[in-house]
Structure formats: C-alpha cells, structure tokens
Amino acid sequence: MPVYNEALTVREIVRRVLAQAGTIHELIIVDDGSSDGSRELISKLAGRRDDVEIRTILRDRNGGKGAALREGFAAATGDIIVVQDADLEYDPADYSDLVRPIADGLADAVFGSRFSGARHNVLLFWHTLANHLLTLACNVVSNLNLSDVWTGAKAFRADLIKRVPFSAKGFEFEPEITIKLAQLGCRIWEVPVSYQGRSYAEGKKIGFLDALLSLWTIVKTAFFGDLGELATGERTLRIMARAGGYNRFLCEMCRPYLGRSVIEIGSGVGNLSRFLLDRAEVVLTDTDDGYLRILSDTYRSWGYVQVRRLDVTNAADIEPFRGRFDSVLCFNVIEHVEADAAALRNIAALLAPGGQAAFIVPAHQWLYGSLDRYLGHFRRYSADGFAGLLREAGFEPVLVRLVNPLAVPGWWFNGRVLGRRVLPSLQVAVFGRLVWLVKLLSRWQIPVGISVLAVARKPR
Question: Where are the domains of the chain?
Fold first, then answer.
C-alpha cells in the first residue's frame, strides 16, 4: 500500500483491508514522504492485528508511486502480491476475485478493471477518455486487449514481480509493468472491481503531466525496456509457447517412440508437457523454483501428473526414479549442462531396459552466438557427435537427424550478426505461421537444421 498525504483516508482503508484477514496474511504500508500527518498515523499501525502482520516502511522523501511499490515488493513475503491504493477508490473486498486466477494456476498477473461490468460511480469524462486512449496505446505496443491498464487494483505472482525490473518512479509504473509482463509472455487476466472515484478537489493526484510521461514510458519500454534476468530464460520459454504448432510437430515426431510412462526433463513452463497428457503416467521436472510452481499450479488437480524437482547432473535426484519409466522426453536441456555425458548416463538410469529417450539439442557449432550465450548453452552439436555421446552413455541410437532448416537463417542473423539476447516475438509469431513448411521439409534429410532430433533405446 503506497501512501502519500492520505491522512484523511489511511486509517479507514487499513480497517477495510484488515476485514479481509482470511484472504491476506500481511500488509506492507510504504509512506512516500508524506507531510500531512499520514506518516505519524502509519507508524502507530505497525504490529499484528486481526491475524494480519502490518509492517511499515517510511521513506524520507517523496519518490512517487513506482518507487514506493519497488520497496514494498522487495519487502513482501507472500506468494501473491496485491497493490492497494491508500485512498478509498478501490474496495479490498475484491481481493478474492483478484487473487483467484493466480491461486488456481491460471494467471501470473491480474488487473482489476473499472470498465468491465464493475460497479462504479459516474467518472470524470476527460479523465476517463485519457484512460481509454492511454490504455489503447499500451495495448497497441503490448498486443494485449486490456480495458484498464491504469487500474490501481493489481495482483502479481510474487516470485515474478520481484524479478521484473522497472524504473518508473510515479504513475508510469502502470504501463511499464504491463508492457514488460506482455514481453515476457506472462498470463494476464482481467476481472471487474468496484470503484468509487474521487475528484481532484478530494485529493486525486494523477494529472496531465502524468499522462505525457506515461506516453513516453510506453514508447521507451516497448523499444528499450530492460527485462533483467528474465530476459533470456523465462521470456524465451514464454515466447516459444506461442509457437504451439511447432512444439506439437516436434512431439508428434517423437510420439511413436513414447510409451505409457513418461518423464520430461526440463519442463520449463510446460510448452511441451501438454502434449504428453494422453500417457498413463507423466512426471514433469525442472530445477527452477518458478517453473516448478507454474507447473504445480497448472496440474494441481491432475491425478496422473506429478511435478518434481530433478537435476540430471545429480545422481541423488535420479535414484528415486531409477528404472521406473519406459520413456524420457528431454528437449533443449543437454546443451545447458557442462557435463553432458554424465547427464545422459543419468537419463539412461531413469529408463527400464528397452525404454526409449527422445532428445532435441541445438545443431551446428558454427551457429553458436549471442542467443546461445545468453540462454546458457555450453555448445551446439553435430548429428554424428550427439549419436556418439548417446553410445558412450549406454544408449543404442534409433533415430538421429537434423530438423527445421527454416529457422537457421534467423538464428544466425539474430545471434551472430545482431548479437541479440532473445528472439524477437514477432519473428517467432511469423515462424509459427510457417510450421506447415517445416513439416514439408522434414520429409527429406536436409543436411542443415536448427536442432538435432535423436531417439535412443536402453538395451535390454
């Protein structure tokens, strides 16, 4: 809860927040250099009340809403973070609707819309018009379809919002965080919320200069935004999720070799996992806490799907699953492992005799560039070289071939010439429309491809 000169409302809004004690476990109030007595009132509120821990952060100078939120996000300890303005415009009774899509594993962020069937008083025309125009501008560059970007009622996965860097100091936080979530490919939901707007005479703070700054922020974030540590791993996985047709194509090529019991190594955000759901038993694994949480939320109610932490370089992680599966799916993982031969031996240990493993690894060392470095690739492989590694690990190669020559020029140009960190989402979207051509080209053994597809059997 960011607070700036809200002495008339802060005690009442805190009372209303505490009325949601069954939904929340902590309230973090950040005073942003108030001079009207808010600071003193907030100081008296700290402590535990109604099973809610109230913590206060007192900033010496006014830095703006974005600056206050940055400190509040860093201090939060819960799994879901809800933003609550300190005036009385937004009703804390809407918290359950805001957090439910995240708690159910359906969303990474939820925006509370004042314009989608919500109850609200009649709003200021020019303020509403400016909101719609700014929301339209934000939607244009983010390719979202939100009705209310500037809503003050938002909820986020805590582990996500803590890692998304934002520089906004004031109300321009709203478009910056929206565009960055879109660039990451995050799942954003919108739910209606109640709204009791106040006039400028009553203390409304956002104004014309904020609108101009927000427009500049939209442009700046769209073209020059920094996504920090999420710019490679999670963003790449989210972007590739849009190439669902290509993911399906790869799984279809491997499907004849998969049995009824499948373990997927390095499931990430689940781009391929959904194509395994016709198996009798599915175990999804990863080493990243954020990905494991997404997978757990997504498949919480699936009786035959398990989500487990597993590091293929750690023999102790392998031991509980030794010899248990007839199939392993391991796409775009081995190149991230320095000791790749040891990882392949551990994967073989997961299989029962006669079981088969399907692999995708990046092809051609001459394609290695900035995209590989930022993704954490140690190397790329030749088809013959990877087949040799499989034999050394105790496998019998069944199928080893290059796939997807169509993507080679783009990877080379983006990684070797432009030095990019991430494939542009527009290029991935265009590629997603050309999967039919990738399928057509797969009929021939073309000696160039973006990946090596390999299937190997564990001897009986």
Answer: 2-229, 233-457
**CA distances in angstroms from 207 to 32, 39, 190, 345, listed in the order given:** 18, 24, 25, 62
Count how many residues are written for the chain.
Answer: 460
Is the pTM for the entire model greater than 0.70? no
Identify which of 34, 33, 133, 58 has the alpha carbon closest to the alpha carbon of residue 9.
34
φ and ψ at residue 35, rounded to 5 degrees: -130, 10
**At 32, which helix (H) or strand (E)?**
strand 26-32
How far apart CA 125 and CA 107 sit, in angstroms, is: 32
Q: Sign of the C-alpha dihedral, residues 287, 186, 91, 162?
A: positive
**Residue 359, amino acid:** F
Answer whether CATH 3.30.40.10 is correct for domain 2-229.
no
**CATH assignment of 233-457?**
3.40.50.150
Tokens 């109640």 -> residue: 194
Amino acid at 449: G
| Tens-digit pLDDT string for the chain (460 aa) | 999 999 999 999 999 999 998 889 999 999 999 999 999 999 998 888 878 999 999 999 999 999 999 999 999 999 999 999 998 899 999 999 999 999 888 889 999 998 876 665 656 676 678 778 888 988 888 888 899 988 989 999 998 899 888 888 888 889 899 998 887 778 899 999 998 865 555 445 565 677 788 888 888 887 766 666 655 555 565 555 555 688 888 889 999 999 999 999 999 878 889 899 999 999 999 998 878 888 888 888 888 999 999 999 998 999 999 999 999 999 999 999 999 999 999 999 999 999 999 999 999 999 999 989 888 899 999 999 999 999 999 999 999 999 999 999 999 999 999 988 777 766 777 877 888 998 999 999 999 999 999 999 999 8
Locate 35 and state its tokens: 């001079």
